[in-house]
Inverse folding.
């Protein structure tokens, strides 16, 4: 049985409501911002002086580097010019669009968990086929993930050990985590949970900290998606019988959303209901019944809790 993701459910409803599978065109690209930052650092120049010549404030630059905002292309071109890099070197800094990456990954999970559709999964695989031998491409990770969940759904036995080993190494070697990395990490964790329901599947501390950081965003849609990701982590703690870690993380999540000014009645009610579950004030069946009676804000929210309820009923003592 598939272990669902609330973060993916929110992402689909906010960003992929038409469920249109991206073409994954090579023309859809973004700049490798971390590499740009490394190149500036290697020049051993004072960052504020460098940015003054470009016309960027330091705070705006770091928000761009951390993928929190976009900046007009003329600033990027100004950075290229000051760095003195060639057109060929600049082209090497282009990478596939993060939006297409995340959309494709989220839709693969959606069509496997919330609305199983083997034809849609096959379409995703066909569109990603050009990346199946490009081992360093992030699209290769989406391709292998989609291939594995599709094979499992067809009762085949893919080589998941290599997939998990490669992904675990990838996350370990990440200096910083993008939104794509967050979603991939959660779906990687959920796939392990689905395949090995009785085992303790530990969450990644760095991912949890990145989620908390994302909850302090000024973007309400981003906050909701990261709230969903946070609940994914909380429920993993709960299934691992790690109530103390779950309670501590949930409190940090609540504080982060409060600090962002995004706390609303729906989030507060969910927080209170989950808190009762974690502190053994209610049993899981009672919690499940109660939270399903709450009016959902997003599509698939109740589907998530139904799937969690069924998973726990079938696999957890």
């Amino acid at each position: 049985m598939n272990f669902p993701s609330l973060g993916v459910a929110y992402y689909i409803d906010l960003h992929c409501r038409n469920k249109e599978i991206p073409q994954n065109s090579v023309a859809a690209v973004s700049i490798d911002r971390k590499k740009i930052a490394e190149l500036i650092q290697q020049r051993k120049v004072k960052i504020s002086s460098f940015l003054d010549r470009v016309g960027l404030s330091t705070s705006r630059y770091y928000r761009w580097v951390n993928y929190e905002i976009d900046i007009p292309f003329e600033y990027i071109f100004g950075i290229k010019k000051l760095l003195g890099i060639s057109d060929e070197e600049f082209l090497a800094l282009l990478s596939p669009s993060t939006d297409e990456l995340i959309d494709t990954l989220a839709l693969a999970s959606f069509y496997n968990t919330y609305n199983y559709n083997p034809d849609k999964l096959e379409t995703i695989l066909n569109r990603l086929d050009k990346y199946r031998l490009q081992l360093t491409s992030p699209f290769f990770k989406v391709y292998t993930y989609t291939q594995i969940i599709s094979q499992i759904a067809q009762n085949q036995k893919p080589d998941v050990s290599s997939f998990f080993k490669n992904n675990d190494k990838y996350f370990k070697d990440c200096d910083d985590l993008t939104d794509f990395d967050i979603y991939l990490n959660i779906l990687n964790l959920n796939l392990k949970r689905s395949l090995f329901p009785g085992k303790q599947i530990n969450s990644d501390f760095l991912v949890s900290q990145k989620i908390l950081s994302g909850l302090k965003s000024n973007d309400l849609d981003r906050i909701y998606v990261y709230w969903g990701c946070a609940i994914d982590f909380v429920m993993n703690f709960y299934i691992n019988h790690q109530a103390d870690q779950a309670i501590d993380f949930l409190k940090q999540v609540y504080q982060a959303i409060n600090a962002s000014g995004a706390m609303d009645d729906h989030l507060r009610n969910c927080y209170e209901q989950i808190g009762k579950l974690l502190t053994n004030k209610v049993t899981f069946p009672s919690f499940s019944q109660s939270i399903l009676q709450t009016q959902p804000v997003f599509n698939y929210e109740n589907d998530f809790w139904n799937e969690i309820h069924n998973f726990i009923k079938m696999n957890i003592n």
